[in-house]
Amino acid sequence: MSEKLQKVLARAGQQSRRDIEMLIAQGRVSVDGKIALLGDRIDVNIMPQIRVDSRLISIKPVADVLCRVLVYYKPEGELCTRRDPDGRPTVFDRLPRLNHARWVVVGRLDMNTSGLLLFTTDGELANRMMHPSCKIEREYAVRIFGKVDAYKLHQLTCGVQLKDGPAAFRRLIFKGGKRLNQWYNVTLTEGRNREVRRLWEAVRIRVSRLIRVRYGDIVLPTWLPRGSWTELPLDYINYLRHKVHLLPELSVTKLPPGRARTQ
Fold this sequence. Notes:
Elements: E1 2-4, H1 5-11, H2 17-25, E2 29-31, E3 34-35, E4 41-43, E5 50-52, E6 55-56, E7 69-74, E8 104-106, E9 114-120, H3 123-130, E10 138-145, H4 150-158, E11 160-162, E12 165-167, E13 171-178, E14 181-188, H5 195-202, E15 206-215, E16 218-219, E17 229-231, H6 234-243
Parallel strand pairs: 9-15
Antiparallel strand pairs: 1-4, 2-3, 2-5, 5-6, 7-9, 7-17, 8-9, 10-14, 10-15, 11-12, 13-14, 15-16
Helix pairs in contact: 1-2, 1-3
Catalytic activity: uridine(2605) in 23S rRNA = pseudouridine(2605) in 23S rRNA
EC number: 5.4.99.-
GO molecular function, one term: RNA binding
């Protein structure tokens, strides 16, 4: 049986399928010593030697892949990258270390945005949860600075033209505030780069604070401190897998004691 190379690597926890496709396009992935191309398929019964940036990747059979999911409260100031050349803190610095697996982030947040981040060891789950076709909602609490009238609110919910195409909030709810500082909860079903901020900027309103409070059915726990994580139980992992049409996980190895942790 053959599978697309990016799907096999995603399942092995080597980032999301979209990120892996970029690595392949950049010539950073090889199969048995040959540079891989987009569209390449591999025989999963033979399992050739696959390398990413010359690093040998451990590929397990489908039955041996354990899907785990973390909920992380990202503080402002952390980058959603594994390493930063300038030495700035990243979201991966605080996560528990794994043997023969890697955490894949589900939907990045920019450095100045805080709130809910999901991580999984299953790149295919991450890919499906981020894919626009699944229409998984992302909800944000937004503090804006500026004068908002009915016409601007109408634009934000009916659609404005951004550089990468039209965009709109699926829902926009006023949550309170005084004078020019006001809070709204907004909902999207896609994750374009800085989309929430760019939508408000399109109607000449500045976002002064942005917090992701929900991703799909997962809500940021009120008891979880910033910079801490907690692991989802098996039944909830399988609920997520069912929502994106993946087979259930049969078992999961729990992390060491201390489900929530800070550094």
